[in-house]
C-alpha cells in the first residue's frame, strides 16, 4: 500500500513563452520537493514527455518516497509537455522541428526555470531524462549545449541512424555521464518509423559513446518498451545523479 505522504505532492503548472516554437509557448509541470524553501537551492531533473513521466512513470511519487525515506537530496522535476502528433518531428534528430525544439530547450526553457525557481546552475546539478525518442532528444540537447548539460537518464533510447551519425561525428565526450538502460524484450518494437531492435540500437550507441570517452552506467534488463519497465528503473536512475545521505 502506498504511504499517503508520498502522494502529497506540490506540482505547479507553467507556460514558457517561445520565439522558437511555432505555437509560441510550451506547457510545463514543476514538482517541488517536500520542505521546499525558496531560500535554498536545488538540483533539477528535466523530463521529456513530461505528462507521461508524471502519470505513468510516477516520478513525483517516487521522488517523494526517496526524499522522505531514503535520504535523497531534495530536487525539482520539470516535465516538458509534448504534442504526441509532433513528437517525432521534435525529438528525432532528423525531425522537421528538432532544431527549433532543442534551441527552445537550451535558450528559453532553462532561463525561464532558473529565473523563477531556486535551482542550481552548474551542469552537475542539471539532469536530462527521457524515454525512447525522449532519451534521444535529451542526448542531442546535451550535445548542442554542453555548457548546460552533462548528465542524461536514457530509458530505452530510440537511437536511429541519424542520431548515431551525429554522435559518431562529435568530439570528445569525457564530460558526459549517462544512465542508460534497455529491455531485453525490445528486439522488435513497432515505431512510427518501422520495427526496430532497441537492444541493438542501444548497444551501438553505447559503443559510440564509450569510444568518445563518455561515462556510461549501462545495463540490460528483462523488460518491454513500456512504462511498466521504465518506472521500475527510475529510482536507480535518480540515485545515479542525485546525492544521497545513505
Automatic annotation (TrEMBL):
A Pfam family reported for this protein in Swiss-Prot or TrEMBL: Esterase
InterPro entries on file: AB_hydrolase_fold (IPR029058), Esterase-like (IPR000801), Mycobacterial_A85_antigen (IPR050583)
Source domain of life: Bacteria
Protein name: Esterase family protein
Originating organism: Paenibacillus oenotherae
Amino acid at each position: 500500500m502506498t504511504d499517503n505522504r508520498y502522494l502529497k505532492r506540490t506540482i505547479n503548472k507553467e507556460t514558457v513563452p517561445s520565439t522558437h516554437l511555432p505555437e509560441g509557448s510550451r506547457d510545463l509541470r514543476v514538482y517541488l520537493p517536500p520542505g521546499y524553501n525558496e531560500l535554498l537551492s536545488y538540483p533539477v531533473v528535466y523530463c521529456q514527455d513530461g505528462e507521461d513521466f508524471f502519470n505513468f512513470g510516477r516520478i513525483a511519487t517516487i521522488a517523494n518516497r526517496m526524499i522522505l525515506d531514503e535520504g535523497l537530496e531534495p530536487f525539482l522535476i520539470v516535465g516538458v509537455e509534448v504534442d504526441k502528433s509532433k513528437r517525432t518531428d521534435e525529438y528525432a534528430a532528423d525531425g522537421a522541428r528538432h532544431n527549433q525544439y532543442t534551441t527552445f530547450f537550451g535558450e528559453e526553457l532553462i532561463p525561464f526555470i532558473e529565473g523563477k525557481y531556486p535551482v542550481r546552475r552548474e551542469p552537475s546539478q542539471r539532469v536530462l531524462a527521457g524515454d525512447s525518442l525522449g532519451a534521444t532528444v535529451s542526448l542531442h540537447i546535451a550535445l548542442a549545449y554542453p555548457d548546460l548539460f552533462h548528465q542524461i537518464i536514457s530509458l530505452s533510447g530510440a537511437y536511429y541512424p541519424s542520431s548515431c551519425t551525429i554522435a559518431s561525428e562529435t568530439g570528445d565526450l569525457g564530460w558526459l555521464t549517462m544512465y542508460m538502460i534497455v529491455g531485453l524484450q525490445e528486439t522488435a518494437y513497432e515505431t512510427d518509423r518501422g520495427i526496430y531492435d532497441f537492444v541493438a540500437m542501444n548497444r551501438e550507441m553505447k559503443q559510440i559513446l564509450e569510444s568518445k570517452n563518455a561515462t556510461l552506467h549501462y545495463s540490460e534488463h528483462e523488460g518491454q518498451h513500456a512504462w511498466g519497465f521504465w518506472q521500475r528503473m527510475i529510482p536507480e536512475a535518480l540515485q545515479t545523479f542525485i546525492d544521497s545521505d545513505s
